[in-house]
Design brief:
By secondary structure, the protein is an alpha+beta fold. The protein has 3 helices and 6 strands. It is globular and about 45 Å long.
Amino acid sequence: MEKLECIPINIWDDFYDDGYVPEGEKLETNIYIETDKISTEKQREYLGILLEYINKNLNIEDVKLWIEYYDSRNEYPDLIGNPDAENMFFDRYEIKLEGLTHERLNEWMFILEDIDITVDNIPFYIYSES
């Protein structure tokens, strides 16, 4: 793995506004490592550390969290073999979140932006943007 200054971790904030979730839909988003310089095995390890921190230190009431492997080829199989789409495929581990509101995310970010988690001598840098 190339030496990184930080492990960039994005909490995707482009999901339904609080109070405006269409009937039959859910508040869903994810947390992922935003670099291709970290192997999927290390992504899983690092996100596991973050998930443990969240479960122990943040208000997770009404929020379901789990780690899942995501491969965009499974989501868009009809694009496989299309030369215009092939370079856009990606795979990664993500912490999936169900039930996280924007209000709760804001509460979390006050804490997560300043946490001091370092693994393999590389600090986590946690932010939220879409």
